[in-house]
Design brief:
Elements: H1 19-26, H2 36-49, H3 53-63, E1 74-77, H4 84-91, E2 97-98, H5 102-106, H6 115-125, H7 146-150, H8 167-175, H9 182-203, E3 207-211, H10 219-225, E4 230-235, H11 238-252, H12 263-284, E5 293-297, H13 298-303, H14 305-316, H15 321-334, H16 347-356, H17 358-364
């Protein structure tokens, strides 16, 4: 049991940002009166830790900066709460994959220097499970990389966790890359490549395994960076995704935000973000080379995770399945007792989904009675 509770964290994840990133993200922002203490403590601790960043930068330049990637990454895409975490954990059983760890998402600038000390302390303090779905939290487990990126540069969608009143602005700029400048996009590319190299070095992998819902809106940029990258796109019943996203966002944002937002406004925003993300992926997926994209329903994957994993390896021409079969089977065996959240759809949920996300219901063939 971690010493701290998730919803009572005295600081937020910006504590791991380098000082330049912290200043650019927070400059000119309105800090809510109830959040000024958390902001000041995060700023003070982050400023102190950022003094160590040059040590990592020197090691990165020496060890990794000029080292080419052996293989282009595998990206797991899909809207939040579409089953990406489960699929990520299954594929991470294959040791040829490298990934971003939970520790790295908070302290991406303390990976090549001081990691054992800071990781031990983080492990002692952090909660053992995610509050919204009871998924296990441990410092070395695979995690989505957007939080790490938000501590390495100021141009990421997850700035909305801290400043949710600007959620739709950040959506257009840093989720969909519609309003981003070329200079900002290049900074994103550089930071992401650095993250990939450090992640592979840290987990001893040869191919980067990404699970990051925001990448769903960045296909063009990802294909530019990694022309032979592979992609898995997850679809899930939109009624379930709505209920799960509402729970996830309203609970996760509480220890992170530095300004207030009502649950109603947060819901309206993610309803709009879903639409924009859906259309952006549909617009850009043709850029993925033929044979490098698999689209699946999460419900199908749940029913036969092992068989579908084997099929995805074959369809994407991924290496190492035979060597990973036992580890994948063992992980899936442990998950058999896991009880996921069950949702009873409220009338308001049904109306909201059908009025706003009907395009996904129609395109993917989902109906109200599917879970």
């Amino acid at each position: 049991m971690g010493l701290l509770q998730f919803d009572k964290l005295p600081i937020n994840t910006l504590v791991g940002a380098d000082w330049d990133t912290f200043k650019k993200i927070t400059s000119g922002q309105v800090i809510g009166a109830d959040y000024k203490g958390k902001y000041r403590l995060t700023k003070a601790v982050g400023r102190l830790l950022s003094l160590l960043v040059p040590l990592q930068d020197k090691r990165y330049e020496k060890l990794l900066e000029n080292k080419p990637l052996e293989m282009d990454p595998l990206f797991i895409l899909g809207h939040w709460r579409s089953g990406t975490t489960f699929v990520h954990n299954v594929f991470a059983c294959d040791k040829h994959f490298g990934f971003t760890t939970t520790y790295q998402t908070v302290f991406p600038n303390l990976m090549l220097w001081g990691q054992p000390f800071f990781k031990k302390n983080m492990s002692f303090l952090m909660p053992d499970h995610r509050p919204t779905d009871n998924m296990e939290l441990k410092v070395d487990l695979p995690q989505e990389e957007e939080f790490a990126l938000s501590n390495m540069m100021p141009y990421t969608y997850y700035n909305f966790w801290y400043f949710p009143q600007r959620m739709l602005e950040y959506c257009d700029k840093y989720l969909l890359f519609n309003d981003i400048t070329e200079e900002e996009r290049q900074i994103f590319k550089d930071a992401f490549l650095k993250l990939v190299k450090i992640s592979l070095y840290n987990t001893k992998g040869s191919q980067y395994l990404s699970k990051n819902p925001p990448h769903t809106g960045r296909v063009r940029t990802l294909v530019e960076m990694f022309p032979n990258a592979k992609f898995i796109y997850l679809k899930r019943n939109p009624y379930t995704v709505f209920e799960s996203t509402r729970s996830f966002f309203t609970n996760t944002i509480k220890p992170l935000m530095l300004q207030p937002i009502s649950n109603e406004e947060l819901t309206r925003n993610f309803v709009e973000v879903y639409k924009r993300l859906f259309y952006k992926f549909e617009e850009e997926k043709h850029l993925i080379p033929e044979g490098n994209l698999v689209e699946i329903k999460f419900e199908d994957f749940e029913k036969d995770a092992y068989g579908m994993t084997e099929d995805i390896y074959h369809r994407l021409n991924l290496p190492n399945f035979e060597a990973s079969k036992a580890a994948i089977e063992a992980y899936l065996g442990k998950k058999k007792g896991y009880k996921k959240n069950r949702y009873k759809y409220e009338d308001a949920t049904v109306r909201t989904v059908e009025e706003n996300w009907g395009m996904a219901l129609d395109a993917w063939g989902y109906h109200l009675n599917e879970e």
